[in-house]
Amino acid sequence: MSIALRCQYAILRGVCCANVNHIHGAPVLSLNHAGVTIVVANGTPPEPASKIILQPPVPAPVDLMGERIVRFDWGSTSLGPLPRWSASLRIAVDVMHLSPLPCAVVWGPDLCVVHNEGYRALRPVAPDALGMAFDALWSDVWPAMGPWVFKALDGHSSFVEDPPLRIVSGEGGEPLWCAFGFTPLHDELGNVAGFLHAVIETTASVEAHRHWREQAQGFERQVERHQVEREQFWQLSRDAMITVTPELKVHAANPALYRTLGWAEEQIRGIPVLDLVHPADRAEVQVAISGCLQYRNAEQIETRLRHLDGHYHCFRWSARFDGSLLTAVGRDITEEREEAARQSEALMRNNERLELVGQLAGGIGHELNNLLSGIGGSLELLQRRLQEGRLERVEAYVEVAHDSVQRAMELTHRLLAFSRHQPLAPRPLDFNRQLRLSEPLLRSTLGAEMRLHWQLDVTPWAVNLDVCQLENALINLCANAREACLERGNVTLRSFNQRLTTWFPDEGGLPPGDYVALHVEDDGHGMSPVDIARAFEPFFTTKPIGHGSGLGLSMVYGFVGQSGGYAWIESAPNQGTKVCMLFPRCLDSVPEAPAVVQRSQRMAGGQRLLLVDDELGLRAVMREYLTERGFEVIDVGDANSALERFHHDGPYDLVVTDVGLPGGFSGRQVAKVMRMQWPLQKILFITGYAGQPIDAQLLEQPGTALMNKPFPLADLFDEALRLLEG
User: Fold this and answer.
1) Strands 36-41 and 103-107
2) Per CATH, which fold does 76-201 belong to?
């Protein structure tokens, strides 16, 4: 290795100190390295001081770049002619020239450039950049390079590789990525006179880095896409989703959960998740979450979460723990559970209904057997006496049969009322007036030692009720009160207006609106909760055998329900009983009270009457009675015959028709056809059962009325006259 190369290496390693002196007018470079002093004067080694190491000169290869440097006119630059260069500049150039890396010595206040062959190819100048100013040479990247140049001129070395700098070496050439070294160079006085600029191409590394960066960016884009898809799924899913921290606090929830439960995000974020869980389910949920946190997954569980309004929704959950958050996905199965509950309840009701039907059939059989026995026995004795020509006690037999028939009529009315198939003839009523009109009946039912008290609203709303059924309900309640008080006590009838703002007593009951309440209260022995639960069942009674049919309260319950109301019982043992009823308010005007007519003084005046009924025996009896009372009666047994007679002989003064008729037409349809031909035709409907109630609009038409079978023939006659005179 030449002395120059060793000096170059030592200087670059920073382990050699250089001093420049002048001996006999010639510059002398003195180097000291590891205790060895080397003195070079004009290229000739001096006599050894302590120890002198000499290297024989080695012939240099042909150096084109060196020739360019020697031939270049340096006098036109700030460096001056080459022979006048300082020793420090010469050594720096020598070191730069022999470097295998592209290098340049940048010297002087103008930052004049002296470069080697590798450096020459970096810049698009021809034939080279010798003598150029460094800032002009690198003007295209000066904003990035300038700060490092000034740092080198301040005496600080730098190696800039992150990020590498992208440079263009010439037209049509590929851009290069390079790292740069900036090493300060000192003059003989130790001042920074310039710097060594070294360039290392890192294009391959940058390309590899770019490749990996593109892969990383591609992965990031995939992650971002998955994040977007996950966010869309989170936002659009119909299933509820919730994330929970290991401390069991709500971290986040998706819109589906907020919509289902009514909460806002700020209301539940950060709260303990168990606060949303139904108290009965919290232990199970806590165990399931603990298992999920430990084993990272869990089986499906069903639990209830609280809605903002206080009720609960049932969810079926699946959950997974990723190490930081537990994510649970739940499907709202509230409707499924409710449907299952409804089916179970319906099945239970069917079973109860079958049991009730059995009780009903047994009760009906018992009651009818008693009644039919009385009727059959009386008729048998009556027939015997007539055959024998004896008339004693005939009236007694007739009375027994008549009484049994009346009791049978009451039984059927109660059964139909309970089944809500009792045909009603409701009309607007002044409630207080109607209750007062019923007072004589109620007092006779209660007996002499029972006291009846009234607490009626001053201005009660009107109601739309069937008067006869209302009176029957009150009579039954007063009869029960008399027996509960052992025929000595107090009964209070209370009426008042009541406005419901919510469903009563639940969503299956009465809707919000205006109602008139009627309470019938006694101070008797009261009822137990078990008896209250069964009180409205038909034939249920706590009375001894033979002292009641058990149909009174069931009839009341059926009548109130069929009238659009609701009935319930409030009672306790030894604290009396209160039967409460709510009837819908009627906004129609209340008609004036009808005048009382004496039945025995009236006769028909030969009016033509068409009687339609498929019961031959009943039709014959009604025809005979009405004929005796002055009507001209034409009777038929089916709808087609009725329409045919009406077509040939109509219109009639009055048509009396059963609702249920054979022949494919009902009494309602017969009436509509007749009124299409004669709109003013008056019609009296009679029926013992109406599977479909008669249209209210039809009954509200003038000249229309309804009577329920069985009825006394005298009542039929009176109702017929009332229609004809109306």
Assistant:
1) unpaired
2) Beta-Lactamase (3.30.450)
